[in-house]
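Lecture 7, part B: from sequences to assemblies.

Below are the input chains for today's worked example.
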Amino acid sequence: MIRKELISPRSIAVIGASEDVHKPGGALLANLLRSSFNGDIYVVNPKADTVQGIKSYHKAEDLPDVDLGILAIPAHLCEEAVRILCEDKHCGAIIIISAGFGENSAEGAQIEKNIIKIVRDHNASMIGPNCVGVMTPYYTGMFSQPVPKLDKMGIDFLSGSGATIVFILEAAMQLGLKFASVFSVGNSAVTDIEDILEYLDETYVHGQSSPVKMLYLESIKDPQKLLKHARSLYNKGARIVAIKSGRSAEGSRAASSHTGALASPDDAVDALFEKAGILRCFGREELVTAAAVLMYPKPAGRNIAIVTHAGGPAVMLTDTLSENKLSIPHIEGPKAEELLSKLYLGSSVGNPIDFLATGTAKQLDDILNACENDFDFIDAICVIFGCPGLNTVQDVYEVIYKHIQTSKKPIYPLLTSIHNAEKEIKYFQSLGGISFSEEVVFGKALGKYMNQLGATADYPEYRMDTKTIDRIIAENGDGYLAPADVKALLEAAGVECVKEYVIHSEDELKAKAEKVGFPMVMKVVGPVHKSDVGGVILNIKDLAQAYESFGRIMKIQDATGALIQPMLKGFELYIGAHNEGAFGTMVLCGMGGTMVEMIADTSHALAPISREEADRMVSSLKCSKLFKGFRGAKPVNEDIFKERIMRIGALCAAYPQIAEMDLNPLLCDGDRILPIDARIRIKK
Amino acid sequence: MIRKELISPRSIAVIGASEDVHKPGGALLANLLRSSFNGDIYVVNPKADTVQGIKSYHKAEDLPDVDLGILAIPAHLCEEAVRILCEDKHCGAIIIISAGFGENSAEGAQIEKNIIKIVRDHNASMIGPNCVGVMTPYYTGMFSQPVPKLDKMGIDFLSGSGATIVFILEAAMQLGLKFASVFSVGNSAVTDIEDILEYLDETYVHGQSSPVKMLYLESIKDPQKLLKHARSLYNKGARIVAIKSGRSAEGSRAASSHTGALASPDDAVDALFEKAGILRCFGREELVTAAAVLMYPKPAGRNIAIVTHAGGPAVMLTDTLSENKLSIPHIEGPKAEELLSKLYLGSSVGNPIDFLATGTAKQLDDILNACENDFDFIDAICVIFGCPGLNTVQDVYEVIYKHIQTSKKPIYPLLTSIHNAEKEIKYFQSLGGISFSEEVVFGKALGKYMNQLGATADYPEYRMDTKTIDRIIAENGDGYLAPADVKALLEAAGVECVKEYVIHSEDELKAKAEKVGFPMVMKVVGPVHKSDVGGVILNIKDLAQAYESFGRIMKIQDATGALIQPMLKGFELYIGAHNEGAFGTMVLCGMGGTMVEMIADTSHALAPISREEADRMVSSLKCSKLFKGFRGAKPVNEDIFKERIMRIGALCAAYPQIAEMDLNPLLCDGDRILPIDARIRIKK
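Predicted structure of the full complex, as structure tokens:
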């Protein structure tokens, strides 16, 4: 639980504050004193009477009541300090920056455990231990540098690694990013990233809260909690960007079926993030660039204007945006001609709009006015402007900043000269501007954002015969279900299966044949070697043929009846599912038959599956190109295929006891999409 | 042609030199004066008697003889100046930085044309116009900033875009890269990047010349020249890294066959670069990072040690390296224990070697000694060391630098704190160190290098019946060859085709049947509807059955003979080829049959094809997993498939008149890989 004492304390005590700013306890106090915190600051240092100009208490016992205690003392002293703070000083929040706990030794782990108990018993908040601290709009409780620029509407940044916070902040500063809060959870003894996200979700007010959350995760302890609050934040209008590292772990579970093996454990993270609306990144630079993109309004469409004074970066940006399915549409017509007339000879406005190395701030102003007002089909504008070192470019950056403030379309400044224009870039950022320096890195981030599905809003609901499903699961132990149970369970879930009936008399034939449909197959029941005795009749086209066939079959020696089945022919797909533990159940689909293992043309999403996810799953299959009809087969009815995927998703979400499911192949014969072979494994 | 006057002039005249360093002519002179050029510098400025302290000539006519003339005057004055320099001043090299030529107007294009003629007539070198200039180990003839640190063993940098040079140099400086030369070719009126590369190739001496070439290209005018010299440089020991932008050009050629359409025009660039040993990059940051990686010796193997004082970046680097097929092997044993004992409690040496945020320079020294000397299986070492802002890290960086100088294994420094350790990073680079700041960006670059095939060394040679091939090509006009010619051409090239013979008498049967092999198919010749008259006999297993079948077939009414063919069954592959103009012919292979268009499981290389390229082509196919045997088919003999690919490559390289070729399917029945259907289109 996050208490207000952690976010906006009225008083802060730094236990272990030091005069030496090269020590964490000294650096933290210095940062705190420099921050805009306007409550009371107390320090505890047994050897000093004042620390950095603040009266020092020699013992925690001597402190007055305090809202937040920050500990920078050796691990073995922390337990006692926490006890005093929580029991005697009505302290509602603790931050322990000290290391030497569970990450270090068994002894440290025991101290950590004891501290957790004290904190929980007093219903307090706690961050750490083994972290760089916390920064909120109200105070800076971090010992590390850099301390980023504070802005209530900046980024909320939560990290599972302390040093990584430092490096990410350093990279973020290059872009001019500002921060609303920074939380370093350290060992997450009491508070994990999911808990803070819950707090950010519950307190989020769109337009008043920080619009962008940035996460660095090395593990996800509670995927469902992360999903719930990230999804909720997304649907309220916030945007979330995250790294989840440690994705190459060799020790991955051995999946027992081939279908299951198609999705790696890291795919579950991907799928969770997709569902949650979290934009996934893989490196620090990508992360801060994506966060910077999210700080701008989202372009209303995919048409981008590139404005540049240099050819090369514009070409590379065009390449990158095109590859990411964004369009750099040709600009022409009278308004384009008018604009061209304002530029120097040799300029072009066709898009990229190139106003040459000699282009001026006034010309850029004209160009941006035209892009904003005259070229309605343009949804966003990228301005590339560096400096070869001859003149200052401050006037140009002022024009860009002015337009960013007033334009309804996002204007992304690509200030490429990190050396020559360093001063001007800093000036631009000091105004409040967020800038990019590398066009390809930027273009990929924008592309990723524009191609993001977004958090799922709602899921289709399906009526199922839950009584039957409950019964089958209850009656069976762990392991694969018998074929009859598989079929019964699927049909109870509303998944159409191949209809087959055994007919014993002509009277039954008509009704059942109509259920099966034509063409059909009729097989003798009784004899073992059906084909040898002429007991398999294919391609029965109508009722007359069916009667005639039934007559022939019943004349075969030992015949006790006839089995009728539809005669199916078509493209083979598959749907599979695999329980991923706390992540839920992953549903997969793809090209079926023996191809499934070989070509691995597959896509997936976590159950339950939204309409948008089903669309994405199907459209991202290579074999979806074949759905229009292939080798004379009827086209695949995509809507029905998607319905099957979503229905299986709903089933697996409702029944996590379904450990594994494999409908392969699913034969697609026109509007009939039927599992020819199906397996279900139960694990309770 | 590059003359020595361009590289190492004894004297330089700056025409249009200015007192005002905000003008190109002023900035260029200032850069030149600051450089280590030790020849004579002359300036021409009609309005001044001295410029930046140098005596100024009022007219070019007044100049003494000069080796190199650099022009920074309006375009319309350049022609006369070039004439004077070349005709009267024995000038061997010209650099025109001025714009306003072909890139600008028809008038400018004419001036450019006139200048080209003068320069060519005098057999001089010329760079530009419309460029930022040239820098060599002997002088700095550029007007832009930054002027990079000069080092004969630094990077040679050739660029088709001037402003892009500036931005790339700015990015390169962040890593501490030094340069041996910079060439901005501008409009490439006389000298293109291929020409400079030719010069660098012809003058290259391994160990004495700059080992790394960096290129920025927007077009490749002479792919074969680029290939020739890049490949030669690679094979002499140089390394080349390049961006070729403009790859998304919508106006791509319409390929007339599906096979051809599988390779996009940009694939030809990829294939050319692969052949040439050029490491292809797509953005500026990727480019300079790859160049920095190339400045280190290549790791002898794929085992990487990661040494870090911070968990997060090590995890992300491990992820990235693993994804790029590099290994971070577990480190254990007595030597590992010994190392661990030297580190603080909580450190780990299992790899990543994490010596904690509190780790010292001395500990790093121990770790690096162990990695270099004790852990033989380690091929390269990455050291991640940033700074949370408490203390200086200069001592650590000195240790890293010391080890880089003496270690036989490459040691890559990842100095992550671009803000907190800015001063120390600059110090490290001032010693001569090259550093990286972002682990994922670095890891991708290292991975790319380690997975590079390298320039082709030599190509397999094949004996072909060139007389027959020449004849078929001569006898046919443009267009598709008739089936008989296709077969004759393929067989002349040594490509085995399906053997089929028409037999008229029992006497012929034995010899031909042995050529065809068993099982075989026999078809009646004469009657039109062969099947209806029982004239198709499948699966003939031996000679006895063949005689019996021949007897039956010859009894059929109107039978004049019998066609025998092998009865083939197997996996379907394909090989295609498509002429890509100046790039040569692209050879493709992949999954065949109707799958080729649908699944697009395809790979390609430019003809001729080396053994390594064929290996890569085949192993990168998804369907290569199926080669071991699939659905009861015999395994595909990969060696024979590769031989076919290389042979087709040799054929297409020798006969560029083959505009298009399509062997689809190629049926793979054990050791027989035979085209069932083949098309060849000729375009002379």
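Note for the exam: The longest strand of chain B covers residues 658-669. Keep this in mind when comparing with the next example.
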